[in-house]
Amino acid sequence: MILIGMFDSPFVRRVAVTMHLLNLSFEHRNWSVGKDFDRIREYNPLGRVPTLVLDDGECLIDSGAILDFLDEMAGPEQALLPASGAARRAALRLMAIASGAAEKGVLQIYESVFRPEAKRHAPWVERCRAQMQGALKELERLSMARAGNWLVADRMTQADITVACVFKFLCDALAIDENGYPGLSALSRTCELLPAFRAIGAEFHAPK
Ligand SMILES: N[C@@H](CCC(=O)N[C@@H](CS)C(=O)NCC(=O)O)C(=O)O
Predict the structure, then answer these.
(1) Which among 32, 66, 122, 194 has most CB atoms closer than 10 A?
(2) pLDDT (tens digit, 9 = 90+) per residue, 107-146?
(3) Does the beta carbon of 64 sit less than 6 angstroms from any atom of ligand 1?
(4) Separation of 51 CA from ligand 1 center, angstroms?
(5) Pairing, β 51-53 against β 2-4
(6) What are the DSSP calls for 139-170, one per residue?
């Protein structure tokens, strides 16, 4: 399989970390949504990452759909999203809030990367920032409420992976102060020490 996209994207990174955890090997194409846009569009009509190219050439798009496929490949024992019930609902809610925060973070970055200064609209950026901060506040509340190391179960789930990837991205790319989020910082430290997270570095580079 070929994974397209840079690991500083939290969407790409959550897929790569998951593949590492599930022992699914892949080739990596470290393509930027800026300068490699045309190459990415050959595999994904939206020109977005992550895109996962399967061995038979099928192209999977959108990290949520890719994670669903990876869990299916891994089988029910190893799948990272809880199979049913309250734990599944809680994990999906956490993942939706974290992904939404990441999307609002990405929009703030794109405002300065893809728009000339004269066309930037501060109220729009403020709105995105408020949405991102609202999401982080809720993630912090939920991470402080957990009983053990993990968010929804007594083992790591996709909720932990997604929240940790998003928190790291927002701290690095948008200078979010970790100290304001002790629960998320603790989860992040636990995750970032794991071999799968260490293997998939997340150093942020604004798209060119
Ligand atoms: N919902 C998508 C979001 C992916 C996403 O926003 N990727 C960004 C990079 S972090 C991207 O491809 N940006 C280029 C663009 O949207 O034009 C997913 O989960 O895969």
Answers:
(1) 66
(2) 999 999 999 999 999 999 999 999 999 999 999 999 999 9
(3) yes
(4) 10
(5) antiparallel
(6) HHHHHHH-SSSSSSSSS--HHHHHHHHHHHHH
